[in-house]
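Before relying on records like the one below, remember that each one covers exactly one chain. Contacts with other chains, cofactors or solvent are not represented anywhere in the record.
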Amino acid sequence: MALEYPYSGATGVPRRTIGGMLWSDPENKTPKFLREAQERLRRTGVLLALAMVVLMLVAGGR
């Protein structure tokens, strides 16, 4: 007997799981250097936004 398509409600081949998570799933944790780079980019974005506001105020005041 042929297997049904997954969307038809057939279970297919059972997988080894722990709490609904597949064994092959990677950890959902980013490396430290990427977290640091994201923080640096976030601070740079805030700094650029503030610099643009100041620049617009200076340009508008002249």
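The longest strand covers residues 17-18.
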